Batch of 2 targets.
Target 1
Amino acid sequence: MNGYAHMAVLTIIVISAFYAVWFRDLLSSVISLAVFSLLLSLEFFILQAPDVAIAEAAIGAGLSTAIYIIALRACKALRKPNGGEGR
Amino acid sequence: MNPLSVVVRTICDIFAWFMGIFGVYIIIHGHLTPGGGFQGGAVVATMAAFLLVAYGGKKVLSFVRPGFYSGMETAGLLLFITAGFLGMGTTFFYNFLAGRGGLFGAVVPIGPNSGILNSAGTISVMNIAVGLEVIGGLSLILIYMFKGIRLFDDHAGRSESGHDR
């Protein structure tokens, strides 16, 4: 049972990390990175480290996503479909 | 920075309070359950990030000044150092409050039990101090990033409302 949970979570981690690199839209990439961080905290919880899991969920999925979104709004790159390249 | 749509603001009104209460719960149960000062402080600072993203920096900064968070950070540091030096009669960081009765020093009964909340002595005080410190520091990072946006915002000449895309 635990092995299957490991396999599923690690597979979705690899998929979300691939999409974080693959998307041209930067907001989609940031959301994919937040999903990656949330699943990483779930993996920490499966590996019986709930302390690290709480820190990863708060810092990785909450604060760093907010900081990335603030930085994207400051660059005005949110509204361009190509992520601000090429103008 | 203008506020986001009404859906985002309603969800923020409902859930931000639960995030704050959960962070404070993690801080004050730091010696019994997983988590502690840093983790709970990060959760409460996520509430500040939530409010800033949903309502925009101008409205949040109108009722919370950065000096409030700076004072919270200073209070956390001073509380931690004071709690360390008050045990100086025996050693540095000596747990002088444990087992004395009162708010922080309840006596733990012998035998298996599920843990008593106010029995940790100075460790609870230090968790609260680290929690105040982390809330102040991480919220100050977010607030100053919003102030940095406002520097570039005056020559933009655009009106943003509704959804973000």
Target 2
Amino acid sequence: MPAKRPNNPARELLFGDLWEYDPAPETAPAHIAPQYGLFINGKFTAPKSKKFFDSISPGNEKKVSEIALANGADVDAAFAAASAAFPKWSKTPGAERGKYLFRIARLLQDRAREFAVAESIDGGKPIRESRDFDVPVSAAHFFYHAGWADKLDYAAPGRTLAPLGVVGQIIPWNFPLLMLAWKIAPALACGNTVVLKPAETTSVTAMKFCSILQDAGLPPGVVNIVTGAGDTGTNIVQHPAAAKIAFTGSTAIGKFIQRTLAGSGKKITLELGGKAANIVFEDAPIDQAVEGIVNGIFFNQGHVCCAGSRLLVQEGIADEVLRKLKMRIRHLRVGDPLDKNTDIGAINSRKQLEKIQELVKSGVSEGAEIHQPACRLPKRGFYFAPTLFSNVSLSHRIAREEIFGPVLSILTFRTPEEAVEKANNTPYGLSAGVWTDKGSRILKMSTELKAGVVWANTYNKFDPASPFGGYKESGFGREGGKQGLLDYAQIA
Amino acid sequence: MTRLPITKTPKCYVGGAFIRSESGRVYAHNDSAGAFACNIPLCTRKDLRNAVETAAKAGPGWSKRSAYNRGQILYRIAEMLESRAGEMSAALALTGASPTTAAREVRASIDRAVHYAGWTDKYESLLGSVNPVSTPHFNFTVMEPMGVIGILAPEEAPLLGLLSMVLPAIASGNTAIALASHSQPYPSILLGEILAVSDLPGGVVNLLTGKRADILPTMATHAHLRAVYAAADKTERTEIQRGAAEHVKRTVFIHSETPCDWFEEKAQGPYQIRHFLEAKTTWHPIGA
């Protein structure tokens, strides 16, 4: 073990300081059409609104495509198609429904690279993540749920499952294709039909996905995709033909949906915001924990509802963890989402960038200490350097509000009880992380933490077989696994 | 001279104690013939808030009891109810149930407690799971109690309806506050006395009496109630869900416009318990 040299920390070699990395852009074609209509009744159709809006790439602010702005009449048409398709689809034998989902999974795998590039262009996430995570896991969701379609009665022993009807689904911009897969796959497996709206800034892969539905021969009307902004979403939420609304997004909108649907008898599932605690104990393997902390907050630019945005470090190792984190974030490469070496891509929109900037400013003015590496950000596009805040207290806005960006707030604790108290001291309850070498402590912490997902000695892992969803104001219902499946059916 | 019998002052079972409403208010309860029977506490939103506080305190201890222990306590409720079955039948007959109907409701209630006593250590293996994820992780989902549950019991089936809503909530370790039938409150008063001698820790079940309109708005909006389970009509459901949205509270409804068959097999089971569970999934790497 080397001697401790408190005033002379270990020397480090930062290659990026000495040599420039050559650009390594992903060049596979994304095949993005210049304009997308709505996907209703199995066909791309011009919006009745006759309106389109631009989708730009947050990586360089260039126009990517024109997206249809669905109005009330368009949403009506989508629900009419979904309602018309429901009787036949819901009576299609489960084994046959499953085959369509298997086909969709396979066709998505075939075109995985193309979809990954399109996702990174349209949404700004690094190609490494869209290629290795978003697209393959999206395909996996279809494959997993395909197998459920003819086995539904095994999901609720003693009862039978019946489909709900037409499901309205509204998804966010942080994992556009993956959230679409999380929503559509279980809905179809249970025999429902769907009207789905992608987020305003990230519609491209959803519209590309429609061509896969056509290639798979999915009956018209089973899946309908309408694009637009908040008004389009409101039209879906309020539509009388919807039997269920499934929403992933902010807690404020989730509450609006719950209020709006009060008394309607419609089923609701909500996957809302989070402010997860990532708790590091003194006996944790520190280097692994540091990697986990970095993955927990900088994955997808921190645009993750379950991001480990509140780091709770036991006091004895707080200085060491901060030092290692500061060093580690100097190695993160921020820039072109399509560059295969990029760790942190573009912030999804100017609006989101401004929100991050505003909250970071509040962190500084409320007295937390900011640490940012010197890094060159591209001149065009929306970028934000990885940011750490130390000396954060629970009352600071950066410790309470969801930032949804690459910004980590670091707090300390002394005892496991204090860690639990601080971790649970939030209206949210989506996820948490625990780092310790002690097995019994992991199970104890997992029991005490009020969160739907607990990652122990890992972080930000997802799988179709693993239910995901929150406690408290992080929403209700689960997505994935047997538990998620049940939220798309009536237990009769 | 004939001896004047001692009549009982009805009190609500809250926090393991028997209370009158903090308001000091009561409403007169008449028997089916219209004669005065007793005064029933008219509980207020302040009583509800006090009950939530005591239920929240009882929660950690109750949820940490072993499933076996919770099962035995639920079974003890059945034992205590069985031993006072005659008295309970009389309580149900007070508002007009025939002796046969009353006895049938008591029997079904006892059986319901036995049913849930057997579920406490079994629903987990049915509803939870070990999940075969495709990365080298051990991944499992356990079902956890939500916390404090607010219950609005139906007006009819004043014992069976109430118990059918309370038992699945507490079986998993939740604690509950229930507002009893307004028109037939006396069985809930007697049920409180039975629960008090059932080894059930104080505060796990809290039974209020009074007007639905006095309790419902606070039950809908109270931040520390994690779910509301209500036999309610459409207006009430709308109000509850609007209030619930303030804290993304879970709501489960029984539509009071349509008659509910509390005796049927489907009025009980693990899917009722499931309404008041949160699925928690834990990941851990598999490796040396």
